[in-house]
Design goal:
- By secondary structure, the protein is mainly alpha-helical.
- It folds into 2 domains: 54 residues; 60 residues, no CATH class.
- Helices cover 46% and strands 10% of the residues.
- The strands form 2 sheets. The protein has a 3-stranded antiparallel beta sheet with strand order 3-5-4. Strands 1-2 form a two-stranded antiparallel sheet.
- Strand 1 and strand 2 form a beta hairpin.
- The radius of gyration is 24 Å and the shape is elongated.
- 11% of the residues are buried.
């Protein structure tokens, strides 16, 4: 069946339909948050029993070992983040102390020092940190940095 032409629908009817859809959306979003919260509790229970909780992949299906990207379908509670004793900035300062390194070499040095990351492209994160913290890092040439 073809959709009705908008010229045949009154403004009041359009407003009622928009209100109905907004109401439905709110209920569905609330239900989704409840289910997500329940799933987080179940994953914690599985982890407490020594199992590996599956996480939601970007396609919306459950998969072992994959963590969905932030955004739609991913709660803050579901995010996993490496906990390091130092920040990336501090780790870079230690790695570059007394040396001039290229961005890739600096990233490797930070990882060798024991820094943990879940970043898909850690080199990019290192590069952004070096560019952003000009007060701490000095550019010594194209793509080469040292500590100030």
């Amino acid at each position: 069946m073809a959709a009705p032409r908008l010229t045949r629908i009154s403004t009041a009817e359009l407003r009622r339909e928009l209100d109905r859809r907004a109401s439905q959306l709110g209920r569905v979003e609330t239900r989704r948050r409840q289910l997500e919260s329940e799933l987080t509790r179940i994953d914690a229970e599985i982890a407490a029993l020594g199992g590996t909780a599956a996480s939601v992949s970007s396609s919306g299906t459950r998969a072992r070992g994959r963590v969905a990207p932030r955004g739609a379908g991913r709660s803050k509670a579901a995010r996993t983040r490496s906990m390091n004793k130092t920040t990336l900035t501090e780790a870079l300062q230690n790695a570059l102390k007394g040396k001039v390194l290229a961005v890739g070499d600096a990233a490797e040095a930070v990882l060798r020092s024991g820094y943990k990351t879940n970043a898909e492209n850690f080199r990019t994160m290192v590069n952004l940190t070096l560019l952003k913290r000009k007060d701490l890092f000095k550019k010594q040439g194209r793509g080469r940095y040292t500590v100030r």
